[in-house]
Amino acid sequence: MIEVAHLTKRFGETTAVDDLSFTVRPGTVTGFLGPNGAGKSTAMRAIAGLIRPTSGTTRVNGRPIAEHAAPLTEIGALLGAGTMQPGRTARSHLLALAATHGIGRSRVQEVLELTGIQAAAGRRVGTFSMGMGQRLGLAAALLGDPQTIMLDEPINGLDPDGIVWVRHFLRSLAAEGRTVFLSSHLMSEMAQTADHLIVIGRGRLIADAPMADVLADVEATRVSVKTPDADRLAAALSAPAVTVTSVAHDELEITGLDAAAIAVAARDRGVLLYELTTHTASLEDAYLSLTGSALEYASEPVAPR
Amino acid sequence: MSASTMAGAAVAVRDQASAPRLTFPRVARGEWIKTTTVPSTYWTAAVTVAFTVLFAAGIMFAVTFAPPADVPDPVAVITDNYGATPSLGVLGLAFMFTYALVAVFGVLLVAPERSSGMLSATLAAVPRRTPVFAAKLLMSAVAGIVVGLVGAVASFLLVQPQLAGFGLGSSLADPDVLQVLAGGTVFLALIAMLSTAIGSLFRGTAAAMGAVLGLLIAAPALVPIIPGIGAGLAGFLPSSAGMMLVQSAAQAGWQPILTGGLVLLGWTAAAVALGGVLFTRRDV
Predict the structure, then answer these.
(1) What is the ipTM of this complex?
(2) From A45, A89, A102, residue closest to B21, measured CB to CB
């Protein structure tokens, strides 16, 4: 379990994290979302004890991380690529970390096999691809067989095989009753992996809810319709709570009405429909609508051709 | 790669009679593993010993192998360069050639770890941090002493045959020899810890090296140039003061040795205090 209470971190003039409070519970996979610069990495590093909060507290399994007798058994963290010296072999890297807790060679071998890099264990880390480096970081996080696992962008650089493996692995850890906390930018993957979401923007909490609730809250359900009589249909459907957008000369996008209502309206006016498709809210839509006003770095919208 | 394997392994780790736990000896062991698993350790050690032996014993061999016509009075050349008891001079020179590389090694124990990001992994495993800093200082001192002693003793033994030939030999068991070896040990240990402590203040390896070598090598060369106070100030620089420690008490007396040692100790203590506080408090 991870508890963050009124966490604030200022770097000089910038407030990276602003009175952030949330709890990450065991038994579920909790996703941590937010735009670039929102403060996710800062919050995670504060939980790991690498960053000293300006105010507020973080606790792992009931106590601040520094008070635990064996931190690697409480929380395993993967906090960014390249947390290893290039001249050292993968095995030596793990042995050095394991030795601090008295964890032995057999466990090191286990985590190498678990993450699938045992064949490269004797190679220098500097020769590793990004994906292998990520696997090594994951192996290091698992050394103490921790109750809580915290990962910052764990699927960065992994091939599709690796991504699927991480998803299954994290879900199985959660099923064992562990606490799994991960941040990611890959919405489609997050939608399949996480059960609960914590969304932050500009250092502040925006949402802290089960995945289903976050998706349901967003009015992004839209219906797309293809018809030769688009203008007549658009006129027929217009109403205060309904938005009709013309996407092409024969295609409309409608929000505020479900597919059945549109089909009935079309039949009543003798409008022929070629296509009637409901698009349910995706996590990406939910995320973009939640964080739209909290973007640190916004790009110019690209005009459609 | 399956959940059941993970669960099985989990049982194995937790059921161990000695469950994982942080202790200082274990943290020190982690530092030992880190030190002995990077190539730079072995290169630095080899270069240090080779360099030391080459220069400390070098003049001796030059004198021995030079034709008598060029060097009519080898004993005079030797005693001019190394002092009345040349073995002690050789030892002193050995330590003086070693300390720069010991300083380099001290920086390498801490700066590359910070610049590569490895320090995040280390401190996530040991969030209290102080044991890591202490272990690094210990590692640095031990490595400096071992490499220094190997170089010094090797130089000493290599020149004994020639010196004995001139009637100027000594034995490792001589009290004077032991005193200089002890002084050199203290000198290198303090320099090593000073370098690690200062090195820990910087984010990049290049900056750390620059600061440490600037203080230990450039400053003694430049400070004496300052008009008036330069010469006096130079005596308070850590390396200049520390070198007093490798003098023979029989020849120079105890006072300069102790004064020099205390000055270096002061520098090292201040650097360790500052470095230690910042290491523990700074964001990583």
Answers:
(1) 0.86
(2) A102
